[in-house]
Amino acid sequence: MKKAFVTIGMMVGLAVSLFLYDQTLPAPTAGSVTIVLSEAGEPLQETTHAFTESDTLFSVLDTHYDIACADREFHPTTDCEPLSFSGVEGRILLEIGPLKSDWFTSYIALNVNGEHAAYGIDQLALESGDTIELDLVPTS
Amino acid sequence: MPVKKLTLMALLTTLLLIQEQALSFIPNVQFSTLLILLFASTFKLRDSLVMLAVYVCIDSLYMGALNPFYMIPMYLGWATLPVLYHTVIKPRESIYAMATLGFFGGFIYGVLFMPFAVIQTGIDPRAYLLADFPFQIIMAASNFLTILWLYAPLKKIYGLYVPKEATQ
């Protein structure tokens, strides 16, 4: 009986130790990207953020900024649940920090190193050293 | 040295090597510590150290190379067990004391590799210890539990086939 208790104690101690060890480990950094928030091409804010291999642009933005995404009716929601667009899961960013779009009169454009991005915030591959601009653009 | 004793030592060393290879798919989980302490309980310290030297040489050959950066810490790590058994545990052989020795043996074994890894690869010692910690704790726990549960029944069976007088 004593052996059984000691064994259970050892197993619990092992599990707790490995859990605590895992908590103390810093997430492996894969690189850093510079996020520029701008309005009609005028930069408002520029910050560099580290990212890990498991990060997407959305997770980086969600961690460091107050964001809102479009729901099914294209109203802003902070839930930021991914929507399905023709079978592709993704999110539409409507608000981030000082930038606020209502989708109909303006939108937030995504530029990578000065060029329009070919992918959205969920699919874009993060490359260390990239400058990612989120630009509030009026629809005209 | 009597032929019977020599044969026993060779046979038990082989057993030590085979069980390690058989369990090599689970990192740091094996019965080596249990068996080394079991053998140390009947053989003299000098004989145990000789068996371990043979074991480390064959293990290193089997794993690919006689690399002193692995062989030396491996031998020191394993040799710690019979040395501590004969100096600390033997006077009052308690299963809990042996399990505790096995537990700390897991950490000692891991830490002994650190200076050799630092010399060979130039790795930061703290990074090495941090990376090795989960394996050390798994080895420590596995040593503790196998000794706690298996030492006594195994010693009974061992005593049937390896009489103490044959090991002296």
Major sheet description of chain A? 5 strands, mixed
Percent of residues of chain B in beta strands? Answer: under 5%
- How many beta-strand segments of chain A? 11
Summarize the helix and strand pattern of chain A as letters.
HEEHEEEEEEEEE
Biggest interface goes to: A-B, 11 and 11 residues
Which architecture of chain A per CATH? Beta Complex
Instruction: Count up the domains of chain A.
Output: 1
CATH topology of chain B: the name is Arp2/3 complex 21 kDa subunit ARPC3
Q: What is the CA-CA span between the terminal residues of chain A?
A: 78 Å
**What gyration radius of chain A follows from the Cα positions, in whole Å?**
21 Å
Q: What's the mean pLDDT score of chain A?
A: 89
Number of beta strands of chain B: 0
Provide an overview of this structure.
The complex is a heterodimer of chains A (140) and B (168). The mean pLDDT of chain A is 89. Chain A has one domain (29-138): Ferric Hydroxamate Uptake Protein, Chain A, domain 1 (Beta Complex), CATH 2.170.130. Chain A has a 5-stranded mixed sheet with strand order 2-1-11-9-10, with no helix packed on it. Chain A is elongated. Chain A contains 2 helices and 11 strands. The termini of chain A are far apart. Chain A is 22% helix and 41% strand. In chain A, β1 (29-39) and β2 (42-52) form a beta hairpin. With 140 residues, chain A is of the alpha+beta class. Chain B has a single domain (3-167), classed as Orthogonal Bundle (Arp2/3 complex 21 kDa subunit ARPC3). Helices cover 80% and strands 0% of the residues of chain B. The model of chain B has no long low-confidence stretch (mean pLDDT 91). The chains are: A alpha+beta (140), B mainly alpha (168). The interface between A and B is small, with 11 and 11 residues.
